[in-house]
């Protein structure tokens, strides 16, 4: 209960059976604004302590023509008086004008009399029933003088005459008024007055407040989080950008550093370094964008040699390799990176002896036909833990922590296969009762790590950003993320 509610309840308890009018409540509470009565009345009625009764009243008052009629008599009354005072032969329009009636009065005035059975017969006015006209006009005049400029409740007036005068311009005006009264319910009347003293409420938590002790016994004003407010319509970051920022924050919080890399890479770093066989179907032009400029991206001979040995016979990794002949030209073909794993691998090659936990969020390119769930350009969230005791549980915990910080607590891993990891897992999250695959992970094989110059294990993962965005933003179609539809974008949740 707010302090205002208490004040109002206390005021009403001074006379628990009373039906309170607005002015009485204002007097009794000492408030100067009806808004407080309405507000507290409403909330007390929602708590079942007060009943609000609405009274609808229709009020009638004289309009400008009506006020004139009050002074001078109704138009029909004035003409009728002239009629009665004039002898039969002279009841012509001509003599009506001579009597001082203006054209704009005479016309409507005769119209009114005609409706009461007064007719123009060969230029002269003649009434069918003079008594009837006299009594009708006298009723009308009584009606007007009964109102006399004040507000009169419609129920106390003749309904037919209200109907008659509301059809005439400017005579009366009608106003519908709703007034409320407030009375205590049984529950309201039995509230203990002792509980209604003013309580200091804290509406805003400030640093100053927290520095002292005053907040300790205090009550905090509740916020109504369901209260309607304006929807902000200003500029905002694109939802994808906002999501990237959030992911970045989560990994930074988890102690990871961020790395970047170029879109243009050699096939060698993008694939051979990852022990992807040169004959792998994903390496064909159907899947990968090879470049004509630059057609060749040079790779240091030292790496080409190492990859050649590993791919051909395993070198001293304990592996037997893929066999066949390694093609160093193939390894130097220019392409658009097909995954961001190229960044983490190059990071290890540069820092083989430095333990590191790094992540990157970057764009990758694959020859995909665009549909509801595929784009030829999309983003991956990539990362590694490269240190002496890196292991699979560490990897799984890291991914679970990441997803739980993103709001998804149910994460599972399933065995999978990638040419460059052993063991390999696929990461799924539970979404609306369904397991959705979001990425791959594993421990880099020695065929990968040895040429890079490290003997430590490397936990690695790569996840699709757009898939995650679709879940978070509740989209059915991946293309919605990149259509410049400002209205739709503006309505996507703020992350
Ligand atoms: N690069 C893989 C992909 O593009 C994901 C992955 C990264 C898997 C690292 C294992 C380890 O789907």
Total count of helical runs of at least 4 residues = 19
Spatial strand order of the main sheet: 9-12-13-17-16-15-14
Strand content: 15-25%
Number of strands: 17
Question: In angstroms, what is the radius of gyration?
Answer: 45 Å
CATH classification class of the largest domain: Alpha Beta
Mean pLDDT: 93
Low-confidence stretches: none
Features:
single chain; 495 residues; alpha+beta; Arc Repressor Mutant, subunit A; BirA Bifunctional Protein, domain 2; 3 domains; 7-stranded mixed sheet; 4-stranded antiparallel sheet; 19 helices; 21% strand; elongated; binds phenylalanine
Task: Please tell me about this protein's structure.
The chain has 495 residues and is of the alpha+beta class. The chain folds into three domains: 1-57 and 173-229, Arc Repressor Mutant, subunit A (Orthogonal Bundle), CATH 1.10.10.10; 64-170; 243-491, Bira Bifunctional Protein, Domain 2 (BirA Bifunctional Protein, domain 2), CATH 3.30.930. It has helices spanning 3-13, 22-29, 34-46, 64-72, 75-85, 93-98, 103-114, 130-147, 159-166, 186-189, 207-211, 239-253, 267-270, 301-313, 341-350, 392-405, 446-452, 465-472, 486-491; strands spanning 20-21, 50-62, 118-121, 124-127, 152-153, 172-184, 201-202, 219-220, 257-258, 264-266, 334-336, 356-365, 377-386, 411-415, 421-431, 434-444, 458-464. α1 packs across α3 (34-46), α5 (75-85) crosses α7 (103-114) and α15 packs across α17 (446-452). The protein is elongated, with a radius of gyration of 45 Å. The structure holds phenylalanine. Phenylalanine binds next to β16 and β17.
């Amino acid at each position: 209960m707010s302090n205002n509610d208490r004040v109002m309840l206390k005021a009403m308890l001074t006379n628990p059976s009373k039906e309170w009018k607005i002015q009485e409540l204002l007097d009794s509470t000492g408030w100067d604004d009806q808004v407080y009565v309405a507000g507290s009345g409403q909330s007390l009625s929602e708590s079942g302590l007060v009943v609000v009764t609405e009274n609808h009243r229709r009020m009638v008052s004289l309009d400008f023509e009506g006020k004139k009629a009050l002074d001078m008599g109704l138009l029909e009354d004035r003409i009728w008086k002239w009629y009665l005072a004039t002898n039969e032969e002279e009841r012509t329009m001509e003599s009506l004008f001579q009597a001082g009636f203006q054209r704009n009065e005479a016309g409507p005035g005769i119209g009114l009399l005609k409706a009461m059975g007064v007719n123009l017969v060969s230029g002269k006015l003649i009434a069918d029933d003079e008594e009837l006209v006299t009594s009708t006009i006298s009723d009308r005049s009584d009606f007007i003088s009964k109102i006399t400029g004040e507000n009169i409740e419609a129920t106390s007036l003749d309904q037919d005459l209200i109907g008659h005068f509301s059809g005439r311009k400017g005579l009366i005006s009608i106003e519908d008024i709703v007034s409320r009264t407030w009375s205590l319910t049984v529950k309201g009347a039995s509230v203990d007055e002792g509980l209604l003293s003013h309580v200091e409420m804290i509406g805003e938590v400030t640093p100053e407040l927290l520095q002292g002790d005053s907040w300790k016994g205090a009550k905090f004003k509740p916020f109504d989080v369901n209260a309607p407010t304006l929807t902000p319509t200003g500029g905002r970051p694109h939802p994808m950008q906002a999501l990237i920022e959030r992911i970045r924050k989560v990994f930074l919080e988890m102690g990871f550093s961020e790395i970047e890399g170029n879109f243009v890479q050699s096939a060698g770093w993008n694939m051979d370094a990852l022990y992807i066989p040169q004959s792998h179907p994903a390496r064909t032009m159907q899947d990968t964008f090879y470049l004509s400029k630059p057609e060749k991206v040079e790779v240091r001979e030292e790496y080409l040699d190492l990859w050649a040995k590993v791919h051909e016979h395993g070198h001293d990794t304990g592996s037997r390799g893929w066999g066949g002949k390694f093609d160093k030209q193939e390894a130097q073909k220019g392409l658009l990176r097909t995954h961001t794993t190229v960044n983490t691998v190059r990071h290890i090659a540069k820092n083989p002896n430095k333990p590191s936990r790094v992540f990157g969020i970057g764009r990758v390119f694959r020859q995909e036909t665009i549909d509801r769930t595929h784009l030829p350009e999309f983003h991956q969230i990539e990362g590694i833990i490269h240190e002496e005791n890196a292991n699979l549980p560490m990897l799984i915990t890291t991914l679970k922590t990441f997803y739980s910080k993103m709001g998804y607590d149910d994460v599972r891993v399933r065995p999978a296969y990638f040419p460059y990891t052993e063991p390999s897992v696929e990461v799924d999250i539970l979404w609306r009762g369904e397991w959705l695959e979001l990425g791959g992970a594993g421990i880099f094989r020695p065929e990968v790590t040895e040429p890079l110059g490290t003997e430590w294990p490397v936990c690695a993962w790569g996840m699709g950003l757009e898939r995650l965005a679709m879940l978070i933003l509740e989209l059915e179609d991946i293309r919605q993320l990149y259509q410049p539809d400002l209205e739709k974008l503006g309505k996507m949740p703020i992350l």
